[in-house]
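A brief tutorial aside. Many learners find it easier to grasp structure tokens once they have seen a single protein encoded end to end. The record that follows does exactly this for RNase H type-1 domain-containing protein. Read the sequence first, then the structure, and try to relate runs of similar tokens to stretches of the chain.
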Amino acid sequence: MRLKDDRNHFNSPPLDSHLWVNPLVGTVKINCVNAWDKVTNAGSAGVVIKDHTGSLLDGSAHCFQSSPVVQAQCHAIRSGLELVHVRGFTNVIVETDSKVCFAAVQGDISVSNWTLYPL
């Protein structure tokens, strides 16, 4: 499976949240969102997988305990990667606003957080 970060501009201002760019034909895009309550450490993750036409191919939502918030972000990415694996997609773009989580998924320990590796 080839992973590509669709936001190569982590230091840039956030994109308009209503702007979604389709992946190329033959590619699917995972969009991940998460929420986290710092008092209870309750987290939730939502994932959608779309194709080049913008059609929804799959999705999921999960609740879990996590601390800190970066773990909730990684749970969302992991859920999306599990979905594309089960569905057999091999050309995948992961869209996330977390550089730390993306680095952890790629296995780059030099810029990552050790608490993410069990995920």
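Self-check: Strands lie at 2-5, 28-37, 42-50, 56-65, 91-95. If you spotted this yourself, you are ready for the next section.
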